[in-house]
Amino acid sequence: MRPTVLHSLKGCVFVLTIALMARWSFAESLYLYVAKDGNDAWSGRMAAPSEDRTDGPVATLGRARDVLRRLRQANEIPEGAIVEVGEGTYLVDEAFALTSDDSGTEEAPIVFRAAEGKQVRLLGGNVVTGWKRVEDASVLERLDPAARDQLMSADLKELGVSDFGSPAGGGIELFFDGQAMTVSRWPNEGFSRIAEVLGETERDTRGTKGCAEGIFGYDNDRPDRWVEERDAWVHGYWFWDWSEQRHKIKSIDTERHVIKVEPPYHGYGYRKGQWFYGFNLLSEIDQPGEWYVDREKGLLYFWAPSPIDESEAFVSVIPTLINMQDVSHVTLDGFILEGTRGTAVTMTGGTENRVAGCTIRNVGGWAVQVSGGTHHGVVGCDMFQMGGGGISMSGGDRTTLTPAGHFAENNHVHHYARVKRVYQPGITLQGVGNQASHNLIHNAPHMGMGFGGNDHLIELNEIHSVCYESNDAGAIYTGRNWTMRGTVIRNNFLHHITGFEGRGCVGVYLDDMFCGTEISGNLFYRVTRAAFIGGGRDCVVTNNLFVDCNPSLHIDARALGWAHDHSDEWVQEGHEKGTLSGIRYNEPPYSERYPELVSILEEEPAAPRGNQVFANVSFGGKWDEVNNDARKYVTIERNLVDHDPRFHTSERLSDGMSPRPVDFALEPDSPAWEIGFQELPLSEMGLYEDETRASWPVSHEVR
């Protein structure tokens, strides 16, 4: 068995064991119970109320936590504790906070878990009731005729909601029948285009021209309807295809068809032909699912996609549901978490915590953010409809190269970055020594995964249908640091990644001189610029299978040309301070872990030296987009290019492309074996099933 496969299988067994422990009933563990019919005056030691209703479960997680604190102080939980929460929806009006006082130990962990096979939901929002049909003529006359008989309203202030936040992000959102609804916008799908830019200050970035001020022309009469709007906004990719921003509209000149936005202006400026849409517009409620909040009056307007009295509607209220600060050996197991304006679960410091088998959906920020600490894990969770990203893990010490050991495994992360559209990946690893494996990530406007730092492992993940609203973006992305090295990206399956309007993006994107990364054993299918080295050094691309990629390989020498400013600054820092990006690169532990760094300033530091490309298979599409200035520095050898690798089974496509492999396995007589190509662990890529995952709540698919 190949070492990489053995390593991954051992990881699966380890994580599965950890997850199963959260559901085992430890005979000596203390049990506490939380239930909808509980009472915080009771002991929590009984799963149901007593007949005389003098004792039974508590009503809230907060009370269960406080009971555990008291029992711990009395040394009454030496074997750990399990807090089991009964079926139902629990409205959470402030974050469930755990601190070091709530920690378990390795021998006596603390588990907060949903009752077996039950849906236990923690909701950080308010259910909206008291809907009334809108009869105000001043409102109705602003709408399209089709919407006038459909519009309903509710008084949020009467429901206790008076802080609505900003349309710029992080504010109130509406969810109906388990789905995120759309704040009123035009166009309903896609974008409008900037017809011309009218600012006075010219911007010219390497020949790409625009202006600095947010003043631009539009070529459609629709924005003329927005003049009377109280709080109109636009959201656009104003200059680059990978950088967006929300702006409040300052004024609309309907005669000249000109929109001015409120400063601060977009940092890169504005460019003709870029795309935007208008939103937060009462007059643009013109289809089911759209909503708008009049922030002055506190009124929520909504065109429900189905009978409003037959489904639940709620608005997000609190910033976060669960906040774990310096807590250790605590597991959250099997909950449905939703309805926050920010991140559902935040974890800072501590060690050996787990978020296992949870469904996290309908939140305005991230699903889980881990910062600092060691050996925290997010395992077997379903995450979707986040306003931001999925799982963020940061930890370890870059000065000493001490790993954190955080891991994200067997999670399904999809349909995310609803609000903030770029640089909100499904999973991101930062710091030193963290791991993401066996995850399925898909349907996002920008990145699938991101990383920064040293010595991470990204393996056996499946990523598809990302970067669909952006270009010059990566399904797996990092960039711009000579000292961030040692990450291995292996045995992943990336497919159907082509960028906005099919103009192209990147599979694994090592941007702006990122170095020392291994890209090995991956399967790329229909990915543009599948393996991309943007001027970096000491990277290895080996044993990858590229099918219908355009191109399979990109390497350039940007630091010798347009990107030299960055490398010039690093070289100057190295000579003057003996550091690169603040790291003493030529001293231990860096000089020992990455010996090629020691002499980097003496060996054409701006050149893409040391890159190796060997034993890859490229079939269909285009193999090579290696810049002429880079080619002389790169070792490219023993690759099978444009020869039929003999897939085990294949079918002919009707679009004229090469035959599509059904399972991508190669025949025993494939010429790939002759170049040293090794068999890929195709069946292990992506999610795996186990008894634990099958027992966890199943998420609702996005409709």
Structure notes:
The protein has 703 residues and is mainly beta. Among the domains are: 125-184 and 284-314, no CATH class; 192-279. The chain is 10% helix and 33% strand. The protein is built from 8 helices and 60 strands. Strands 1-2-5-27-30-33-36-39-42-45-48-51-54-57 form a 14-stranded parallel beta sheet, sandwiched between helices. Strands 3-6-28-31-34-37-40-43-46-49-52-55-58 form a 13-stranded parallel beta sheet, with no helix packed on it. The protein has a 12-stranded parallel beta sheet with strand order 4-26-29-32-35-38-41-44-47-50-53-56. The radius of gyration is 27 Å and the shape is globular.
Separation, N- and C-terminal Cα atoms:
42 Å
Shape descriptor reads globular
Derived from helix and strand composition plus strand pairing, the structural class reads mainly beta
Question: For the residues shown, what is the average pLDDT?
Answer: 92
Give a quick summary of the entry.
The protein is 10% helix and 33% strand. It contains 8 helices and 60 strands.
List the helices and strands and how they pair.
Elements: H1 3-23, E1 30-34, H2 61-73, E2 81-85, E3 88-91, E4 96-98, E5 110-114, E6 120-123, E7 125-127, E8 132-133, H3 137-140, H4 145-148, E9 152-155, E10 174-176, E11 179-180, E12 182-183, E13 185-186, E14 192-193, E15 196-197, E16 202-205, E17 208-211, E18 215-217, E19 233-237, E20 245-253, E21 258-261, E22 275-279, E23 290-294, E24 299-302, E25 313-316, E26 322-325, E27 330-333, E28 336-338, E29 345-348, E30 354-356, E31 359-363, E32 368-371, E33 377-379, E34 382-386, E35 391-395, E36 407-409, E37 412-414, E38 427-432, E39 435-437, E40 440-442, E41 449-454, E42 457-459, E43 462-464, E44 474-479, E45 488-490, E46 493-497, E47 506-511, E48 518-520, E49 523-527, E50 531-534, E51 540-542, E52 545-549, E53 553-556, H5 564-577, H6 590-593, E54 612-614, E55 617-621, E56 624-626, H7 628-631, E57 635-637, E58 640-641, E59 650-651, E60 660-661, H8 691-695
Parallel strand pairs: 1-2, 2-5, 3-6, 4-26, 5-27, 6-28, 12-23, 26-29, 27-30, 28-31, 29-32, 30-33, 31-34, 32-35, 33-36, 34-37, 35-38, 36-39, 37-40, 38-41, 39-42, 40-43, 41-44, 42-45, 43-46, 44-47, 45-48, 46-49, 47-50, 48-51, 49-52, 50-53, 51-54, 52-55, 53-56, 54-57, 55-58
Antiparallel strand pairs: 7-25, 8-9, 9-24, 10-11, 10-25, 13-22, 14-22, 15-18, 16-17, 18-21, 19-20, 19-22, 20-21, 23-24, 59-60
